[in-house]
Amino acid sequence: MANPHDALFRELYSRPAHAAAELRQVLPPELVAHCDWSTLRLCSDSFVTRELAGQHVDLLYEVELGRRPALLYVLFEHKSHADRWTALQLLGYVASALRSWHDRQPTAERLPPLIAVVVHHSETGWRRQHALLDLFDVDGALREVLGPLLVSLPFLVDDISHLDPVSLRARVASVSGELVLRSLQRLRYARDPASGLRGLRELFEAVRALGDRDGLLVRVVAYAMQIWELSAAQLQRLVHDELGPEVEATMASAYEELLQRGRAEGREQGRQEGRQEGRQEGRREGRREGREEGRAEGQVRLLLEQLDARFGPLPGEIELRLRAATEGELGRLARLVLTAPTLDAVFAPA
């Protein structure tokens, strides 16, 4: 399950307008010039493994590059420090992305170019390699010999850890998007919720003035609630105290949406729990019915053996009558078989 930082990043950059702004900043200018940004579209795949889903979130975009498809793979890494092995993890993701594209285009004779981008945020900033090649244990002359034979996988790194507001603003397409990036950059490491919100006051006021056309304000509210473990009411009081009543009024719809979403999630969870209870009850009922059927089968077999022992070979209809009998009737026949003088007397009407 993605952590709240990853979820907020995905919410922002799964929108092509914001993704295009970010990619224009990090890709080489000559490559930016050759991309037809009007064709940029998000592919639905994610290639992060389940074990790493709490550390990474990824987005795969396709764009026309010189009238041919190209893939832009964006990996977001939000950690307390840069991971030494990100390049190795990226290798698996990139291979999966290319394999997925090939599966969708089985008649293609060649693969599209894929450019990998790591968007990084941590307290320390990015201090690691920019290619898988740098992880191999080769030096000096041996590196010159082996280098052309090893998987290189160079990738671009956009370290947003300590970017100034102007640089962050260039990576999004709206003031709401800027609020998302600044929230990712500031809120996690704020001394306390109050100081974290105060540092974003100007942006909250800009969203109030210009309007939240992206619908991202509610995502920021949800993010703040998650990382600080606040209720909507607690956050509302903080906003009122630190950002003022006008910003609080702007956020009213965000609070309401969160409440509605919470109710919907609660109802869905209730339905799921109800279905689970139903399945459990069904299993219990099945086991109970199975035990009852097993007991009835045992009674029938025992009666057949007793009847055969007392009265000799039995007509075929006797077994059918026994299998059609209720549990109470089988109990009555079991008592009669011990005293009845004839087979007909066992089955005589009560």
SSE ordering = HHHEEEHEHEHHHHHHHHHHH
Average pLDDT figure = 82
Give the tally of β-strands.
Answer: 5
Binned, the helix content reads: 55-70%
Share of residues in strands: 5-15%
Q: Structural class of the secondary elements? A: alpha/beta
What's the arrangement of strands in the largest beta sheet? 1-2-3-4-5
Unreliable stretches? none
The total tally of domains equals 2
Main sheet summary: 5 strands, mixed
Number of helices: 16
Give the terminus-to-terminus CA distance: 66 Å
Radius of gyration: 34 Å
**Assembly state here?**
single chain
Looking at the structure, what is the overall shape? Answer: elongated
Summarize the structure in words.
This protein is an alpha/beta fold and 350 residues long. Helix content is 57%, strand content 12%. It is built from 16 helices and five strands. A five-stranded mixed β-sheet has the order 1-2-3-4-5.
In short:
With 350 residues, this protein is an alpha/beta fold. The protein folds into two domains: 4-173, no CATH class; 263-346. Helix content is 57%, strand content 12%.
Which key phrases capture this entry?
single chain, 5 strands, alpha/beta, 12% strand, 57% helix
